[in-house]
Amino acid sequence: MGIRTLLIQIYANKFIRWAMLSLLIIALFLGGVQLRRWIGESTRHVRYQHDIVNAFYWGSETMKEARRLSPDEASANSLAGFGRGYLALYDRVKHKAYNKDYGLDYPPLRLLVMAIWAREVRNQFPGVDDGHPKLVNPLLKINLLCELLSAVAIFLLVRLCLERESCATQSDSLRTPAAVRHRASICGLAAASVAWLEPSMILDAHGWPQWDVWILPFYLFAALSALKNRWFVCGCLLAIGAMFKGQLLFVAPFFVLWPLWQKRWNRALRVLAGFISTAALIASPWLLRTPAAWIALLAVTGFSALLSLQRQLTHRGAWISGIAGSAAFMIGAFAGGSFAWLRVGFLYGSEHYPYLVISSCYNLPSLLSKLGWSLKDPFWSVHFGSLDFGLTLQWTLRLLYLGALTVCAYGAARQVRDRDPRVLIAMTAPWLLMFALLGQMHERYLVWGAVVSAVAFGVSLRLSIIHFIISAASTAMIMHVMLIDKKFETTLWAIDLLKHIRGYASVLVLACVGVYLWNTLPRQAFQRRAARLPRAPSLSLGPEPEEA
Q1: What is the pTM of this model?
Q2: Is residue 470 a contact partner of residue 432, using CB atoms and an 8 Å limit?
Q3: 378-384/387-392 β-pairing
Q4: What is the DSSP letter of 383?
Q5: CA–CA separation, 394 vs 350, rounded Å?
Q6: What are residue 384's DSSP bridge partners?
């Protein structure tokens, strides 16, 4: 009894409780950093070097283009020369490509980061080998920062949704606000800890290493902005994230469909306004290449600002930004702007690997490939006289994904209305569905769903267990490709094992994704009917039900 009383007194002391919680957070952070260092050292012999070499090559090509466009070496090494090389690289790659095989598939912001990294490396070590592991450290630090921001965003998301649920339910309304915040914070901390220690993310970002984690903070904070009705900010964050990695565009329509199901057309338009204006701002050096183009943009922006002032529009800044962004794209199309950044950085990536399955993936296309299907096979065709209309398997899977994404958006709209924390699952499902249904997926692309699904700790234990299954599948796929790239005799048994379980693992992953999709569906009406207290009829002789 003495020990129990002591523990109760310690827990009741607010200072001691917060001190212990702070020590736990510090221990988790330092442990995660040390785990990443250990993974980086332990996997060096199987590191997938191709992506590092590719990043260093295109960063160096930016510097070569700067030297080509500069009159002397000093001018080429200046920031102005660097900017000239960076802005001209897309056009040079597009014009010199053979049969539209560009090789470069980096969106503008990722190319900028790689160019800055290569420039710093070349300045410090002119004759350096691009495979030296110490030179990757700056990129690994960016990965670490994005992982940390993702964990923070997951904490904020889970806490916000649980606090809203507690305010909406009668049972939790009897609790004190401090108790509600405490419960929400504990669940949020659990979800953030699991995301911070996610093995597939650590292996992808520090063992491979890749740059997939860069878009996670933008998506998660965009979801947080949507929950707080900051839809313009949501669109801005999605645009910035897409400029680092284009795969974010597959799930971005979720944030447009969500308010459409709520019949909040202005919210959907604000998401589009934020996305278009931010994308136009980033791409403006390519779109607006003449003083006349900039003058035209300023004229359109000024006219839209005057019009909005006269009509006293709400969210005036969002509408002006959206109009200006749309005008920038229109002016670029008609005034000699360059869209090579779009052709090379985005569209080429979707055409670069025209295969149903690229590598070791546990998804529906993997199962279809075993049945003999390919990406461009006709799935359905109709003949009208001399006209033939065909639907390929690629577009069939895309339409299936779009339908599932629409269901997720509908679930999110209903769950936000009812303050149901399962909106977190609706935000996770697009990443899982993208990997499970679409062709041309790399094995690494499940890492996004594995990280975001950590929010399940704020929903239910069953969904939290499914998160670990998804995490294990993501880790296994990444390990498989790394082991295949550099085969060792000691790892052949692991390669054979991972190869033989691919079919079973695909079915398991599809089942887990199906459970998550099912939990996005609104079932509040049935839950309310089951949760209602039975009331005795007025003429009943039975006892009245006790009230809580």
Answers
A1: 0.90
A2: yes
A3: antiparallel
A4: E
A5: 12
A6: 387
Whether residue 278 contacts residue 239, with contact meaning beta carbons closer than 8 Å, is answered with: yes
DSSP per-residue codes, 146-199: HHHHHHHHHHHHHHHHHHHHHHHSHHHHTS-HHHHHHHHHHHHHHHHHHHHT-H
Q: Helix, strand, coil: what percent of the chain each, to 5?
A: 75, 5, 20
Distances (CA, A) of 244 to 50, 92, 113, 239, 282: 19, 21, 9, 9, 11
DSSP 345: I
Ordered per-residue pLDDT tens for the chain, 548 residues: 455 565 455 555 666 767 888 888 899 999 999 999 999 888 888 888 888 888 889 998 998 999 888 888 888 888 888 999 999 999 999 998 888 888 888 999 999 999 999 888 887 777 665 545 567 888 999 999 999 999 999 999 999 999 887 665 544 444 566 677 778 888 999 999 999 999 999 999 999 899 999 999 999 999 999 999 999 999 999 999 999 999 999 999 999 999 999 999 999 999 999 999 999 999 999 999 999 999 999 999 998 888 877 777 778 888 999 999 999 999 999 988 999 999 999 998 888 888 888 888 999 999 999 988 888 888 777 666 666 677 888 999 999 999 999 999 999 999 998 888 999 999 999 999 999 999 889 899 999 999 999 999 989 899 999 999 999 999 999 999 888 877 777 778 888 888 889 999 999 999 999 999 999 987 654 455 444 444 434 333 334 443 33
